[in-house]
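Why do we care about 3D structure at all? Because function follows from shape, and shape follows, mostly, from sequence. That is the central idea of this module. The next example makes it concrete: a single protein chain, its amino acid sequence, and then its structure expressed as C-alpha cells.
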Amino acid sequence: MKRTIKLFAALVAVAMVSCQEPVEVPPTTTAIGINSVSATFLKGPLASNKLAVFTTNVSSLEEDIVIPIPWFFPEDSNDQITDITEMRVTASMDYNCFLEPGLCVLDLTQENHFTYTDGRGDVHDIVIRGEIRKLPYKQMIDFQVTSPSLITIIDEEKKEINISYTDATEPLLGACEVEYTLSPHATCSLDGEEIVDLTTLKEVNVTAHDGTTATYAIKTKNSTPQKVTYGYAPGSESELWYLEMEGLGIPCVETNNQSLAVCGKYLVVCPGNGDAPICLNKNTGKKEMTMSISGANAGYVCNDDAGNLLISNHTDATFCIWKTSDVEATPELLLSYDNTMGYPLGGSFKVQGDINGEALIVAPFWGTETGGGQNNIIFWHITDGVVGEPTIQGITGFVGPAWGAGYWYYTANSPIAFTPLGTRIEDGLLLSVYDENALYFVDGTTFACSKLLGGYTTFPNAPINRSISAKHFNNARYVALFATGAWPAWAVNTYIYFYDMTSLAGMSGSIESTTALMFSQAPETFYEQGGGTGGNVAPTGDIILVPSSDGYYLSLYCIDNNNRLVVGYQVDCIDREASEEESE
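And the structure:
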C-alpha cells in the first residue's frame, strides 16, 4: 500500500508540471567549440615526420579557417612544399560539437565547405582551406664580433645588439669581422660585408622570407657586462632547438654509438657506426656540412675546453685519437696506443682541459659479448701540449649490472657513463653503470668508488645512464647526466638531469631527487609506438656541456638513438638588472 501511494503522488506531480509553461534551459557553453584544425601529409617524405603537423587556432567562424603551411619544411631546409592537394585534416572540438560531412583527406588549395553544429545547437556554414606561406621569422639569433674578439649580448625584447669593448680594442672598432646567425631564410643588411665599422654602424635590419623586417639597434660601450656572483642566472634556461635525428640523415640503427662535440660554430655529430660526422650550426641546429676526415676513422668525438675537436677510432687493436681546431681541416694524430688488453677502446672517451696546454684524456676499455665485463680505464696526462705515457687502472667499489657485479659491458648492454672532474686524474671521476644506475665518485688516487646518489625510484631498471658531462661555469661546477629511454615502447623516454656539483660533500638522495638537481628535462620522443620508424634499437647517445669562450653562456647538447632526437639548451650568467642600471 505504501508503495502505491508514492507512485500515485509522483503521477500527480508529473501531471501538474506538464500543465506549466516550458522552462528554457540555457546553453551549457558560450565557446565557439571548434578549437583548432590541423593538417598532415598523406603521402611523401613528410607523411611519417612527427613534426610535420600544421595547426591553426580557431577564434571566429565568420571567416575562412585557414591552415598555414610553411614554404619550406623543415623550415631551416631548402625543401619547398608545393603540393597540398592531399592532406589529412583533423579538428579539436568540444563535447557535443559536430561537423558534416566528417573530416578526411582534403585538397587544401580549394575551399572545403562544412556544416558545423556547436554545443548550443547553432548551425554554421564554415570553410576550411590552406595556404602555403613564406616564413615570417626575422630574428638575429646570434651575433659575434670575431676580430677583435668582443663580448656581444643580444637583447631580443629591446631589439638591441650590445657590444662591449675595452681600451685595448677601441682603436680596432673601425674594422671588425663579424659572424651572425639569422632565422631560416631571412636576410640581413650586413649580408656580403666582410668588414664592419662599429664606430658608425647604428642599426642592422633583418628581413624575413615574407618581406617583413625587424631593426636591431647597435649599442657599443666601453664596459664588461656584469655577471651574477655564482653559477647561471635563474630564469635564463631556454631551449635552443629540438630536432628529429633521422631528419638529419642519421638513421636509427643498432650499430649507432653517437657522440657530440663543439668546434667553432659547429656541433659535430658522430654516428659512431663508421659514417663521417656531420656538422650542425650549434645555435640553430641547421645541418651545415659533412666532415671529410681522411686518415681518421670516426668512432667517437669530444672536444676540449679550448674548442679542439678530438676524434677516436673504436678498436681492440691500435687505438688512435686525432685532433683538429677546424672541421674543414684534415685531423692530425694526437696519440696512438697498441692495445693488447683484448678489449676494445673508443666506445667512449672524455677530455678535460686544453690539449695544447694541460689536459686529461680518459677512456674505458669496453666489455664484450664473448669476453665478459671490464672495470679498467686508460688515461693520458698532457703537459705543455705533450702527451704523457698511458696508465691503465682498475676501478672498484661500484655495483654495476645484476648479472655481472663490479663490471661494465658494451654499447647496448650496461655501458659505462663517466667523466673526469679535472685536468689531473687525482681530481677523480664520476661514474654510473646500468642497471644499478647509481652515481659514484671515483677517488683519483685509490680508484675506489663512493656512492653520491642512488638509482631511480620510478622505473628503476628502465633508464640507462648513458653519458655524463662536467664543466666549470662562473664559479660553479655543473654536471649533466643523460639517461636514455632503453624501452620507449614502455613510455620510458629521454631524461636530462642538470646538477650543481661544485661540492660533492654531503650529497644524498637519488638521481631524480636531490638538492643538487637544478632542473631536469624530458624531451618528447620521436619513437612511434607500434612501428613507424622502428622499435627499440640501441640505447645509445651522448650529452655535453659547453661553456662559451666569453664565459657568459653554458650550452647543453644531447642526442638519443632510441628516441631519435637531438636537442640543445642554454643558460647564461648575465646580471640583467645590473646591466640595465649601468646602461641608464
